[in-house]
Amino acid sequence: QGCKLSHYTLLTCKIAIMKFFLSSAIALALAASTSAFSPSLGVGKSTFRASHASVADTKQTTSKQSSTQLNMAATVDLKGKVAFIAGVADSTGYGWAIAKALADAGATIIVGTWPPVLKIFERGLSKGQFDEDSILSDGSKMEIAKVYPLDAVFDTPEDVPEEILSNKRYAGLDGYTISEVADAVAADYGKIDIVVHSLANGPEVTKPLLETSRKGYLAASSASAYSAVSILQKFAPIMNEGGSFLSLTYIASEKVIPGYGGGMSSAKAQLESDTRTLAYEAGRKYGLRVNTISAGPLKSRAASAIGKEPGQKTFIEYAIDYSSANAPLAQDLYSDDVGNTALFLNSPWARTITGVTLYVDNGLNCMGMALDSKAMEGSRPE
Questions:
Q1: Is 250 a catalytic residue?
Q2: Residue 76: CB partners within 8 Å, gap ≥ 6?
C-alpha cells in the first residue's frame, strides 16, 4: 500500500526490500558457519598449522564450561631431526632441559661432553642416575643416542698442547676437538638439524675484572664465546638448510653483576654480538638461523661452584634471591622454562626469527631499580 504514491516512493521501497533480503542472506550464512573464528592459515609458505575448535566441538564440552572457547592446539614435530647439544654433563643444567624438550618433540639427541667429566657422566647414564630427570610427557624416557667427548677450546688436533695430551683426565680419549667431533657426527648421522651451544668456562670467574689476568680473560673468551663461533664454523656445512643454532647467554653481558668476573661478562657480550653477525653470515651462506637465550639464574652444578665459601651463600644463590625479590614475575625459574623456549626457537614455528637475544628471566632484564634496596624501604609498591 505504501508504494502507490509516486515513482520516487516506489524506487525507495524496492531498495528497502533488497536491503532486507541481503541482510537476511548474510545472517543465514553466519548462522550456518561451523566456526566462531576462521583465520586463514594459508598465507605464505609457513608449515605451521593450528586447529581451531568448531561450534559442534564446543557443544560437546562439559556442562561446567559456559563460554565458547577457541582451542588453538598445535604441537612441534621434530621426528627425523637430529640435535647436537654441546655441554651436557649432568641433568641439572639448561643443556639437559633443552635436550629433553627437543626429545619430547621427537628429535634424536646426541651430546658433546667435556672429557674430564665424560666417564662420570657415562657412568651415571648407565646406572640410571638420571632416569627420573629423563621422563618425557608421554611417560617414556629420553634416550641420548650418542655421547661424544668434546673440548670446545680446541678447534683441530694440532691445537691440543702436550699438557692436555699427557693429562690423565684425557687418557684414552681422542677425537675431542671441534672439527673432529663435527666429522664424527657427519659420519654417524650425515646432515643434522639443530646445534645447541650450552657451555662456558672462566678460570678466574671469581676475580673482579680489575684483577683478571690476560690469560684468564682470554680463556673465558675462548671457552665461552669463540667456541660458539668455531662450533658453527665446523657444524654449519653438515646442517640441513633451515636448521638452527642456539646458545645461552646471561644478563651480565649488558648489566653489572658483581661476582661474575674473570672476563665472563665480556665473553657473554661477545657471544651476543657474534649471534647477530653469525645470523647474517650463516643465514646467507647456509640458510641457518642463529639465536641466543639470556637465561635467568639457575642453581645448576656448574653455577653452584662459583664463589663457594664455607658458611656463605654461593654466587648463584645470591642471584636467585635477587631475582625473586626484584623481577616483575615473582616466581621460580625452572630449567624447563628455558627448555621450552629453546624448543620454540629450534622449531619451524620460529622460521623467521634469527639474530635474537631472547630473555627468559621472569622479566628481570627490564628492571632499572632494585625493589629490595634499603633506599626503597617504605616506598616499595605492592
A1: yes
A2: 105, 343, 344, 347, 348, 349
